[in-house]
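hey so u asked for the seq, here:
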Amino acid sequence: MGGMFDPVHNGHLNIAQNCLQALGLDALRFIPCGVPVHRDNTLTDSRYRLEMLKLAITGQEKFSVDDRECRSKEPSYTQSSLSSIREENPEARLFFLMGLDAFNSLPTWHRWTEIFELAHLIVATRPGVTPAYDGVLQKEHEKRVASSVEEMKQDRHGRIYTAAFEEKDISSSMIRERVARNDTLRGLVPSNVETYIHNEHLYKEVQTS
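ran it, structure tokens below
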């Protein structure tokens, strides 16, 4: 599961847990973006985002944090990350979990069609986001769509499965805005993440995206 995780919140964790259970996965990795390509404003330093992720998954044996993008000074490309994971795990079946908003913009991603040669895509619906793709992405979707987990798993990679997991209407921008207003984060992030945010004085100024 890739993303900015700036910060990680209960919506991320809920989707990840539902995905883990629905697909019967052996493990799920969170891969925070290191050097974003599609975002202009500055991310919170990776050391903070990594630490919040590690705190958030405390006690979750099947969850882990993969810091490969944060360790690299090169732009963070999903294709590159999946390719390196495939090299490390040649026999594994990979699934890449992404939100519908990210899927809508997939043709703008670096070497995006090669992602289908590396993994299945799990597209999680999000509150207020609707499918908004046509052209090449629509053709890929029509060609690769799987109507069920079982159908998707018949192939090693290259299928697209849209999952309507139980949704929590939470966003990282909402969290940052609430911190800037000194509002509580109860129920929005794990308690240890909330404590860390306050102890490190993060998000005192509102970021809009």
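The two ends are 19 Å apart (CA to CA). Residues 10 and 189 are 5 Å apart (CA to CA).
lmk if thats what u needed
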